[in-house]
């Protein structure tokens, strides 16, 4: 129904829709900044303090999203972030999930945080990326579902590109300017600035380089 109204009004409907959704989110206690835009309906599962969820100015969401917190979990989506459809954001325990200013997130991404996860500014996060700061314990002799978790903070720097279907696990540090190739599993380690990673498990295979300067003589010819 929403899509039909948007089609009939050449997408102008979404402006009114965004104002309504913003008002509803604020009614829950979620803090939402100026210029909020959404082309869907958020699914909320708030078991912690709703004021721990902060959406900055000029955030754009192009579809439905899923936002969850419990205990003292905090979610900060900073100014100018864009989010595609069907992404999930979860913060539990005392975890802080922070999405940095100007970052773009593709569809079907999951950020599941039992401890802190920080995504830097101006990052590109492609389709179906999974960032997971906890793992189930799986000792023999007891049902896995009854065992606890182990945790490790995740830090992803500025200007990082996570390509499609990348998984980032607990304890990983990916510094500024890194690129992670499609379908890679980044399971552990600290990766220096401008590293290019690929594989399962991911390994450094190269580094970003300065663009080649064109020969002006060639341009004249």
Report the count of strand segments. Answer: 26
Count helical runs.
3
What is the helix content? 10-25%
Structural class by SSE content: mainly beta
Oligomeric grouping of the chains: single chain
Report on the biggest sheet. Answer: 9 strands, mixed
Output the CATH topology: UDP N-Acetylglucosamine Acyltransferase, domain 1
User: Which word captures the global form?
Assistant: globular
CATH class: Mainly Beta
Mean pLDDT: 94
Give me the strand/helix succession: HHEEEEEEEEEEEEEEEEEEEEEEEEEEH
Strand order in the sheet with the most strands: 2-5-8-11-14-19-22-25-26
Please report the distance between the alpha carbons of the first and last residues: 57 Å
- Report the uncertain regions: none
Overall tally of domains: 1
Estimated share of beta-strand residues: 35-45%
> Any idea what the radius of gyration is?
20 Å
Under CATH, the homologous superfamily reads Hexapeptide repeat proteins
Mind telling me which CATH architecture this is? Answer: 3 Solenoid
């Amino acid at each position: 129904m929403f899509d039909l109204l948007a089609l009939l009004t050449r997408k102008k409907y979404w402006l009114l829709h965004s104002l309504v959704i913003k008002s509803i989110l604020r009614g829950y206690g979620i803090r939402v900044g100026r210029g909020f835009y959404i082309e869907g309906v958020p699914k909320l599962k708030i078991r912690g303090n709703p004021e721990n969820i902060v959406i900055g100015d000029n955030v754009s969401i192009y579809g439905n999203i899923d936002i969850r917190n419990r205990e003292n979990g905090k979610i900060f989506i900073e100014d100018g972030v864009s989010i595609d459809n069907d992404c999930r954001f979860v913060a539990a325990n005392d975890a802080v999930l922070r999405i940095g200013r100007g970052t773009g997130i593709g569809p079907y991404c999951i950020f599941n945080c039992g401890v802190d996860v920080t995504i830097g500014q101006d990052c590109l996060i492609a389709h179906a990326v999974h960032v997971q700061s906890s793992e189930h314990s799986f000792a023999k002799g007891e049902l896995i579902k009854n065992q606890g978790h182990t945790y490790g903070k995740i830090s992803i720097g500025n200007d990082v590109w996570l390509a499609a279907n990348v998984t980032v696990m607990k304890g990983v540090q990916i510094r500024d300017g890194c690129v992670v190739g499609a379908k890679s599993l980044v399971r552990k380690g600290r990766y220096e600035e401008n590293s290019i990673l690929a594989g399962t498990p991911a390994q450094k295979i190269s580094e970003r380089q300065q663009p080649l300067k064109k020969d002006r003589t060639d341009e004249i010819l």
